[in-house]
Amino acid sequence: MSDGLIKLEAEIRADLAMIAHPGAAWLEPKTGPDGKPALDVLIIGAGQSGIAIGFGLVRSRVSNILLLDKAEEGKEGPWLTYARMPTLRSPKDYTGPDLDIPSLTYQSWHEARFGKESWQALNLILREHWAEYLLWLRRTLGLPVRNGCELLEIAPASGGLLAARVKRADGIETLYARKVVLATGQEGVGEWMIPEPLRGLPAGSVATVADDIDFENLRGKRVAVIGAGASAFDNAATALESGAAEVHLLCRRAQIQVIQPYRWLTFRGFLRHLSDLDDAWRWRFMRTILEMREGFPQPTYDRCARHANFTLHEGAPLEAARQTASGVELQTPHGAIAADFVICGTGIDMNYAGRGELARFAGNIASWADRYQPPENERNARLGRFPYLADDYAFTERVPGKTPWISDIHLFAIASTMSFGASGSSINAMTTAVPKLVNGLTRGLFRADVERHWASLSAYDVPQAVVTRPARKMEESR
């Protein structure tokens, strides 16, 4: 470890010690059906969101926690897997999992690792460096993480606990917890969409932007990318850079979207208080933002446009697709496009029943369509399928009383967007969204123990001072 990082970690320990008030422990572990102490909070996902949530809980003196991630250590999140851009798209000075502690910011880590001059010259953060920073942050904070653990199912257990069945390399175990947080980023409670016309094609000829694509195998091939968001362009660029013979990007809009609404919404008022608005305003804002989709920065476009064998097709929604003797034929309003391989960058749709961990209660998760009917000109069926979350990010019931225990399952993922705006997968929202979630978690834990706290107060008899009363000499009677 460099001298700069050693010095920084000493500063972090001093900073955290200085702001440790109050230091009193306030939770007593519950005992699970297996006779062992249950966790207070189980966090599924140890990427940037899981780390920030774990840090927020520890600062709130909730230390009986555990983070699980199905990936191997260092491969959490998309940064070293399906993220195919050279750098983050967020400006370098956006803070996030540091939760507003200066010594924990990416800038502090970068300066300690590479020097202040490097930070000054930096334009955007390399995704490899972001992944390294997150791993360093997790280790520096001492968060308890188990990798190679996949959540299979969440079910109710006795004593008001939740039972989480988890698959590990050596078998399956059940963990008991008072609360479960799904900090599962892009996937959340959905699945990557493959447009209906492509679903009948051979599996080997279609992939989504989140799949493990062998781009070297696309050398000399014709590639079509469906969608025109930043991830679609990243995959098109990766195919071009890997030697694809030609790459066609199909945009359904008449003109490609170049406005990035997530830059507009990055101000404290919106990030902190969108969720405080009524349903009509929340729907209006988020429908507009999500229908615009995320725009892409100039370097993302230039990365594709510099290749003469790249073609952007605007006003070209996919109408049909069929397998041919020479590959795949995609039909658009402007004619057919021939391809050997198709990559879908069309986003994520909600599919509660398709998620094994949600299967037990998928049918009773309330969606936005269950709770709010927008005006005719504001309707969007896909967005209506997003979960309608409580003010602490918890699932709510479609039929009250049928699965009351899901109020202890909290969702911090892309699917939280309709209820809370940017959160769950956005760096720019973390310093406002994570404290809101942590406050909700600690509120629930406190309320559940309110009788114990009352009994503790009633029995509290620790004196703060010793009062001495010197004996007074009685005046002699005259």
Quick overview:
The protein is an alpha/beta fold and 478 residues long. The chain is built from 15 helices and 17 strands. Strands 1, 2, 3, 4, 5, 6 and 17 form a seven-stranded mixed sheet that branches. The protein has a five-stranded parallel sheet with strand order 8-15-9-10-11, with helices on one face.
Structure description:
The chain is α/β, with parallel strands linked by helices. It contains 15 helices and 17 strands. Strands 1, 2, 3, 4, 5, 6 and 17 form a seven-stranded mixed sheet that branches. α6 (230-241) links the parallel β9 (222-226) and β10 (246-250). The longest helix has 19 residues, at 430-448. The mean pLDDT is 95. Keywords: Oxidoreductase. It comes from Bradyrhizobium cosmicum.
Rg, please? 26 Å
Largest sheet: 7 strands, mixed
- The share of residues in helices is 25-40%
Distance between the termini: 86 Å
Name the poorly predicted regions. none
The amount of beta strand, in percent, is: 15-25%
From the helix content, strand content and strand pairing, which structural class follows? alpha/beta
Key features of this structure:
15 helices, oxidoreductase, 478 residues, seven-stranded mixed sheet, five-stranded parallel sheet, alpha/beta
Layout of strands and helices, then pairs:
Layout: H1 3-18, E1 39-44, H2 48-59, E2 65-69, H3 106-114, H4 116-121, H5 127-141, E3 145-147, E4 150-156, E5 162-168, E6 171-185, E7 190-192, E8 206-208, E9 222-226, H6 230-241, E10 246-250, H7 261-264, H8 268-273, H9 279-292, H10 298-305, E11 310-313, E12 320-324, E13 327-332, E14 335-339, E15 341-344, E16 348-350, H11 368-371, H12 381-384, E17 409-413, H13 417-420, H14 430-448, H15 450-459
Parallel strand pairs: 1-2, 1-6, 2-3, 6-17, 8-15, 9-10, 9-15, 10-11
Antiparallel strand pairs: 4-5, 5-6, 7-16, 12-13, 13-14
Helix pairs in contact: 1-3, 2-14, 6-10
